[in-house]
Design brief:
Layout (H helix, E strand, L loop, with lengths): L9 E5 L2 H4 L31 H15 L3 E5 L2 H4 L9 H16 L3 E7 L5 H7 L6 H16 L6 E6 L1 H6 L1 H4 L6 H29 L4 E7 L3 E3 L4 H23 L5 H9 L10 H5 L7 E4 L4 E4 L19 E3 L16 H15 L3 E5 L17 H20 L3 E4 L21 E3 L11 E3 L1 H12 L5
Parallel strand pairs: 1-2, 1-11, 2-3, 3-4, 4-5, 5-7, 6-8, 7-10, 10-11
Antiparallel strand pairs: 8-9, 12-13
Length: about 450
Amino acid sequence: MANRFPDGFLWGASTSAFQVEGAWGEGGRGKSTTDRGFGIPGITDGSVASDHYHRWKEDVDLMAELGLKTYRMSFSWCRIMPGATCEPNPEALAFYDGLIDYLLEKGIEPFATLYHFECPQALVDEFGGWLDRRMIDAFARYAEVCFRHFKGRVKLWATINEQLIATASSVNTGDTETDPKRHQGNTYQMSYHMSLAEHRAFELLHSIDPEAKIGPVCAIQVTYPLSSSPADVMAALNAEEMEQFYMLDMSVRGSYSPYAASYLKREGFYPAVEPEDDAVLHGSTPDFIGINYYSSSCVKERTEPIVFGGFPPWGAGDFVLCDNPRLEKTEWMPNGLDPIGLSIGMRKVHDRYGLPMIITENGMALSEEPDESGAIHDEQRIAYLSAHIAQVGELIEQGYPIFGYCPWSFVDVVSSHQGFAKRYGLVYVDRTDDDIRTCDRIRKDSFYWYQKVIAGNQLPE
């Protein structure tokens, strides 16, 4: 690997609005599907989260101290448009104006995600959210307001974060379907509507602000066969197709692969379409692809009939998930640590689509508390990030077009299923699930290590 990264490489860090902002009842914000809590006793919701809504200036000062070149954030749709009429909320726009202007003042490029899991509850109540085609127009209206309002200040945009999770989790979608197979079918209909909405957004941004760039964010599913058995290899191919590529194919190419289309038709999942959809899906293309990666997975041949009922689409398909015995597991990383998987996944994405890429999430979760001196020594996280950054450097040296790296997360955020017990941040937030405490910020060892990476534009010797 070359020692230094390219000049202008975007060293960043990521968060999302519902996991970091808090302030549910402030600033005219509407309700979100994620406000209902996660249904797990003892796990906090996002009502306070990391209190970024009140501490954003302090957080940006920390970003500047860290040396970030970009901050990958998200807008809260239900804050910007709290009601079903989709009328913009001036207080919300003013809040994001302050944040974005201060980022720019500090030399940090805002990288804004339009949709990161939280769906406006008002639109679910009004017509069912993403299950209804009216959501496409609502998203286009929301995107246009953001594109016009922040034109010239936000030049990097992401459409939808991790469509896989955005469609499959009832907490995110508000879908109350209890029949497992119908619920899984709903995920594909919602995914289809999201893809149409993405293409509407691509076209809007390119017409409103031609200098800005936009792309989807995919949680890449690097899937290994349990053995060299051809049936296991085929199972891994099927898994990657239905956990990753069917969504990216729609986002980039505007169509399903033959296998994906065949599977959806076979199971009765093929979405309802309209004649005008084809022109929308093929009328625009993204400028780049955002890559989220934490770990890989492993599958084997399915020898029994599909039983619907697990978390779709992982729970049902022409494959069976299994443990990978060759990877080291940790408390919060049950699939194992696999830095090489990042290279494998990014090479596959690039070979299929040929677009520039940016790592939008990559991180290691740990259970953490400050020691007696008030410090957080997270050597495991440093080792994880170092190993993955080394893979990015090798890919760039080989010629792959990667223009940035944003670990998850900048500060500790409320995890959607494990609250504040599971921490990813470079900066510690002093709170627990049951005690808000002060929410003070404490720099972890990884903060100082990443500061050196950015300053030297390379991994430290």
